[in-house]
Amino acid sequence: MTRKKSFIARMEESLLMLTKLKFMDSKENAYNFLNDKLNSPDKPVKSVFKSMDFNGMQVFTFGNENAKNTILYIHGGAYVLEMNHQHLLYCFLLSRKLDAYVLAPVYPLAPKHKANEAYDIITELYKKLIPRDNLILVGDSAGGGFVHSFCQYLKTVSLQQPQKIITFSPWVDISMNNPPYDSENDPILGEIGLKEIGKSWAGDLSVQDYRVSPLFGDNTDLPDTLIFAGESEIFCKDIKKYVENLKRDGVNVKLVTGSGLFHIYPLFPMPEAYSAFKEIKNEIMD
User: Fold this and answer.
1) Quick one: which of 247, 197, 74, 206 has its CA closest to 147?
2) Average pLDDT of the chain?
3) What pTM was computed for the model?
4) I need a labelling partner for 69 at 20 to 30 A (CA). Which of 33, 95, 120, 208 fits?
Protein backbone atom coordinates (compact mmCIF):
# COMPACT_ATOMS: atom_id res chain seq x y z
CA MET A 1 0.00 0.00 0.00
CA THR A 2 1.43 3.41 -1.02
CA ARG A 3 1.89 5.81 1.82
CA LYS A 4 0.54 9.30 1.25
CA LYS A 5 2.85 12.30 1.46
CA SER A 6 2.50 14.38 4.57
CA PHE A 7 0.90 17.81 4.38
CA ILE A 8 4.28 19.41 5.13
CA ALA A 9 5.93 17.48 2.30
CA ARG A 10 3.25 18.64 -0.14
CA MET A 11 3.71 22.25 0.96
CA GLU A 12 7.48 22.07 0.64
CA GLU A 13 7.18 20.51 -2.81
CA SER A 14 4.92 23.35 -3.95
CA LEU A 15 7.36 25.95 -2.66
CA LEU A 16 10.29 24.20 -4.35
CA MET A 17 8.44 24.19 -7.66
CA LEU A 18 7.97 27.96 -7.39
CA THR A 19 11.65 28.54 -6.65
CA LYS A 20 13.19 26.03 -9.08
CA LEU A 21 16.46 27.31 -10.51
CA LYS A 22 16.01 28.56 -14.08
CA PHE A 23 19.20 26.99 -15.37
CA MET A 24 17.87 23.50 -14.68
CA ASP A 25 15.48 23.47 -17.65
CA SER A 26 17.21 25.73 -20.17
CA LYS A 27 20.47 25.23 -22.04
CA GLU A 28 20.79 28.99 -22.58
CA ASN A 29 20.26 29.72 -18.89
CA ALA A 30 22.73 27.00 -17.99
CA TYR A 31 25.38 28.55 -20.27
CA ASN A 32 24.73 31.99 -18.78
CA PHE A 33 24.88 30.65 -15.24
CA LEU A 34 28.18 28.86 -15.86
CA ASN A 35 29.64 31.94 -17.52
CA ASP A 36 28.63 34.13 -14.58
CA LYS A 37 30.18 31.65 -12.16
CA LEU A 38 33.36 31.56 -14.19
CA ASN A 39 33.71 35.33 -13.90
CA SER A 40 32.79 35.59 -10.22
CA PRO A 41 35.45 35.52 -7.48
CA ASP A 42 35.54 32.57 -5.08
CA LYS A 43 34.38 33.60 -1.62
CA PRO A 44 34.40 31.74 1.71
CA VAL A 45 31.06 30.44 2.94
CA LYS A 46 29.81 32.62 5.80
CA SER A 47 28.12 30.94 8.74
CA VAL A 48 27.75 31.01 12.50
CA PHE A 49 29.32 27.54 12.50
CA LYS A 50 33.08 27.32 12.86
CA SER A 51 35.41 26.34 10.07
CA MET A 52 39.10 25.70 9.62
CA ASP A 53 41.54 25.98 6.74
CA PHE A 54 42.88 22.78 5.21
CA ASN A 55 45.45 23.37 2.46
CA GLY A 56 43.52 26.44 1.34
CA MET A 57 40.12 24.73 1.51
CA GLN A 58 37.52 25.87 4.03
CA VAL A 59 36.24 22.97 6.14
CA PHE A 60 33.32 23.30 8.56
CA THR A 61 33.54 21.20 11.70
CA PHE A 62 30.81 20.11 14.09
CA GLY A 63 30.92 18.26 17.39
CA ASN A 64 33.73 16.91 19.53
CA GLU A 65 36.88 15.63 17.85
CA ASN A 66 36.83 12.70 20.27
CA ALA A 67 33.29 11.63 19.36
CA LYS A 68 32.53 7.97 18.74
CA ASN A 69 31.92 8.47 15.01
CA THR A 70 33.61 10.61 12.37
CA ILE A 71 31.59 11.78 9.36
CA LEU A 72 33.02 13.33 6.21
CA TYR A 73 30.07 15.11 4.58
CA ILE A 74 30.25 16.05 0.89
CA HIS A 75 27.58 18.61 0.05
CA GLY A 76 25.39 18.71 -3.03
CA GLY A 77 24.55 21.52 -5.39
CA ALA A 78 25.18 20.04 -8.85
CA TYR A 79 28.92 20.70 -8.42
CA VAL A 80 28.29 24.43 -9.03
CA LEU A 81 26.45 25.65 -5.91
CA GLU A 82 28.19 26.30 -2.62
CA MET A 83 27.30 24.69 0.65
CA ASN A 84 24.21 26.33 2.12
CA HIS A 85 22.48 26.65 5.49
CA GLN A 86 20.48 23.47 4.87
CA HIS A 87 23.71 21.46 4.61
CA LEU A 88 25.24 23.12 7.64
CA LEU A 89 22.20 22.59 9.82
CA TYR A 90 22.03 18.95 8.80
CA CYS A 91 25.70 18.45 9.66
CA PHE A 92 25.01 20.02 13.05
CA LEU A 93 22.11 17.60 13.53
CA LEU A 94 24.32 14.63 12.62
CA SER A 95 26.94 15.67 15.13
CA ARG A 96 24.44 16.15 17.94
CA LYS A 97 22.29 13.07 17.39
CA LEU A 98 24.90 10.52 16.30
CA ASP A 99 27.80 11.29 18.65
CA ALA A 100 29.81 12.32 15.62
CA TYR A 101 32.61 14.66 14.68
CA VAL A 102 31.49 15.99 11.30
CA LEU A 103 33.71 17.63 8.69
CA ALA A 104 32.13 19.37 5.71
CA PRO A 105 34.64 20.66 3.14
CA VAL A 106 33.90 23.56 0.81
CA TYR A 107 35.50 21.78 -2.12
CA PRO A 108 36.37 23.44 -5.48
CA LEU A 109 33.41 23.72 -7.84
CA ALA A 110 32.71 23.96 -11.56
CA PRO A 111 33.08 25.74 -13.86
CA LYS A 112 36.31 27.25 -12.47
CA HIS A 113 37.44 23.90 -11.15
CA LYS A 114 37.12 20.31 -12.32
CA ALA A 115 36.54 16.96 -10.66
CA ASN A 116 40.22 16.05 -10.56
CA GLU A 117 40.96 19.10 -8.38
CA ALA A 118 38.31 18.06 -5.88
CA TYR A 119 39.74 14.55 -5.82
CA ASP A 120 43.20 15.84 -4.99
CA ILE A 121 42.23 17.90 -1.98
CA ILE A 122 39.49 15.61 -0.65
CA THR A 123 41.95 12.70 -0.79
CA GLU A 124 44.41 14.62 1.37
CA LEU A 125 41.69 15.42 3.89
CA TYR A 126 40.53 11.79 3.87
CA LYS A 127 44.06 10.57 4.61
CA LYS A 128 44.01 12.65 7.80
CA LEU A 129 40.80 10.92 8.89
CA ILE A 130 41.73 7.30 8.11
CA PRO A 131 43.22 6.58 11.56
CA ARG A 132 39.88 7.40 13.19
CA ASP A 133 37.46 4.66 14.20
CA ASN A 134 33.98 4.53 12.67
CA LEU A 135 34.72 6.77 9.69
CA ILE A 136 31.56 7.30 7.61
CA LEU A 137 31.19 9.06 4.26
CA VAL A 138 27.92 10.95 3.75
CA GLY A 139 26.81 13.03 0.79
CA ASP A 140 23.73 14.47 -0.87
CA SER A 141 22.94 14.84 -4.56
CA ALA A 142 26.17 15.67 -6.42
CA GLY A 143 28.02 15.15 -3.15
CA GLY A 144 26.44 11.72 -2.89
CA GLY A 145 27.61 10.85 -6.37
CA PHE A 146 31.09 12.05 -5.43
CA VAL A 147 31.09 9.82 -2.34
CA HIS A 148 30.29 6.70 -4.39
CA SER A 149 32.90 7.58 -7.04
CA PHE A 150 35.46 8.46 -4.39
CA CYS A 151 35.11 5.08 -2.69
CA GLN A 152 35.62 3.37 -6.06
CA TYR A 153 38.70 5.56 -6.52
CA LEU A 154 40.13 4.68 -3.08
CA LYS A 155 40.75 1.16 -4.32
CA THR A 156 42.96 2.44 -7.14
CA VAL A 157 45.24 4.33 -4.73
CA SER A 158 45.32 1.60 -2.06
CA LEU A 159 43.56 3.61 0.64
CA GLN A 160 41.22 1.87 3.04
CA GLN A 161 37.47 2.23 2.74
CA PRO A 162 35.29 4.04 5.27
CA GLN A 163 33.20 1.89 7.56
CA LYS A 164 29.94 2.96 5.91
CA ILE A 165 28.52 5.01 3.04
CA ILE A 166 25.28 7.00 3.39
CA THR A 167 23.92 9.11 0.55
CA PHE A 168 20.80 11.10 -0.26
CA SER A 169 19.63 11.17 -3.89
CA PRO A 170 23.14 10.66 -5.31
CA TRP A 171 23.81 11.90 -8.84
CA VAL A 172 25.27 8.66 -10.15
CA ASP A 173 25.28 9.40 -13.90
CA ILE A 174 26.18 12.94 -14.91
CA SER A 175 25.79 11.99 -18.59
CA MET A 176 22.02 11.77 -17.97
CA ASN A 177 22.01 9.09 -20.65
CA ASN A 178 18.94 7.14 -19.55
CA PRO A 179 15.93 9.15 -20.82
CA PRO A 180 13.17 9.95 -20.51
CA TYR A 181 13.51 12.18 -17.43
CA ASP A 182 10.37 13.89 -16.19
CA SER A 183 12.02 17.25 -15.49
CA GLU A 184 8.76 19.16 -15.78
CA ASN A 185 7.36 17.57 -12.64
CA ASP A 186 10.61 17.56 -10.65
CA PRO A 187 10.60 20.64 -8.36
CA ILE A 188 14.40 20.77 -8.06
CA LEU A 189 16.17 19.01 -10.94
CA GLY A 190 16.23 19.43 -14.71
CA GLU A 191 17.83 17.18 -17.33
CA ILE A 192 18.84 19.95 -19.77
CA GLY A 193 20.79 22.07 -17.32
CA LEU A 194 22.35 19.13 -15.51
CA LYS A 195 23.77 17.73 -18.74
CA GLU A 196 25.64 20.98 -19.40
CA ILE A 197 26.84 21.27 -15.81
CA GLY A 198 28.00 17.66 -15.86
CA LYS A 199 30.26 18.34 -18.85
CA SER A 200 31.76 21.32 -17.06
CA TRP A 201 32.50 19.30 -13.92
CA ALA A 202 34.02 16.37 -15.83
CA GLY A 203 36.52 18.56 -17.66
CA ASP A 204 38.84 16.29 -19.65
CA LEU A 205 37.17 13.16 -18.28
CA SER A 206 34.38 11.39 -20.10
CA VAL A 207 31.01 12.07 -18.48
CA GLN A 208 30.79 8.28 -18.12
CA ASP A 209 34.12 7.98 -16.33
CA TYR A 210 33.53 6.37 -12.93
CA ARG A 211 35.24 9.30 -11.22
CA VAL A 212 32.27 11.50 -12.13
CA SER A 213 29.58 8.87 -12.79
CA PRO A 214 29.83 5.99 -10.31
CA LEU A 215 27.12 4.11 -12.23
CA PHE A 216 29.91 2.98 -14.57
CA GLY A 217 32.44 2.00 -11.90
CA ASP A 218 33.53 -1.13 -10.01
CA ASN A 219 31.92 -1.47 -6.58
CA THR A 220 33.59 -4.65 -5.36
CA ASP A 221 34.78 -4.50 -1.74
CA LEU A 222 32.89 -1.29 -0.99
CA PRO A 223 31.50 -0.93 2.55
CA ASP A 224 27.91 -1.26 3.75
CA THR A 225 25.83 1.34 1.95
CA LEU A 226 22.56 3.12 2.73
CA ILE A 227 20.94 5.19 -0.03
CA PHE A 228 17.83 7.38 0.04
CA ALA A 229 15.89 8.51 -3.04
CA GLY A 230 12.59 10.24 -3.69
CA GLU A 231 10.38 8.23 -6.00
CA SER A 232 9.36 11.39 -7.89
CA GLU A 233 12.84 12.76 -8.58
CA ILE A 234 14.44 12.31 -12.00
CA PHE A 235 17.49 10.62 -10.45
CA CYS A 236 15.42 7.78 -9.00
CA LYS A 237 15.67 5.31 -11.86
CA ASP A 238 19.43 5.84 -12.22
CA ILE A 239 19.83 5.34 -8.47
CA LYS A 240 17.86 2.09 -8.62
CA LYS A 241 20.09 0.94 -11.47
CA TYR A 242 23.17 1.77 -9.42
CA VAL A 243 21.81 -0.13 -6.43
CA GLU A 244 21.47 -3.19 -8.67
CA ASN A 245 25.12 -2.72 -9.65
CA LEU A 246 26.10 -2.61 -5.99
CA LYS A 247 24.24 -5.84 -5.30
CA ARG A 248 25.84 -7.45 -8.36
CA ASP A 249 29.26 -6.48 -7.02
CA GLY A 250 28.53 -8.02 -3.63
CA VAL A 251 27.95 -4.84 -1.62
CA ASN A 252 25.58 -4.92 1.36
CA VAL A 253 23.27 -2.10 0.27
CA LYS A 254 19.89 -0.82 1.39
CA LEU A 255 17.78 1.56 -0.69
CA VAL A 256 15.06 3.59 1.03
CA THR A 257 12.64 5.30 -1.37
CA GLY A 258 10.27 8.04 -0.28
CA SER A 259 6.84 7.46 -1.79
CA GLY A 260 5.99 10.39 -4.07
CA LEU A 261 8.82 12.42 -2.60
CA PHE A 262 11.34 14.77 -4.16
CA HIS A 263 15.12 15.11 -4.39
CA ILE A 264 17.13 14.97 -1.09
CA TYR A 265 13.92 14.80 0.93
CA PRO A 266 15.70 13.61 4.13
CA LEU A 267 17.30 17.06 4.46
CA PHE A 268 13.96 18.84 4.74
CA PRO A 269 12.04 19.37 8.01
CA MET A 270 9.09 17.02 7.57
CA PRO A 271 7.84 13.71 8.98
CA GLU A 272 9.36 11.65 6.15
CA ALA A 273 12.78 13.10 6.96
CA TYR A 274 12.43 12.11 10.61
CA SER A 275 11.74 8.54 9.51
CA ALA A 276 14.82 8.68 7.28
CA PHE A 277 16.94 9.87 10.18
CA LYS A 278 15.83 6.86 12.24
CA GLU A 279 17.14 4.65 9.44
CA ILE A 280 20.48 6.48 9.55
CA LYS A 281 20.73 6.19 13.31
CA ASN A 282 19.98 2.48 13.19
CA GLU A 283 22.62 2.03 10.48
CA ILE A 284 25.32 3.86 12.40
CA MET A 285 24.50 2.61 15.86
CA ASP A 286 24.12 -1.00 14.69
Assistant:
1) 74
2) 97
3) 0.97
4) 120
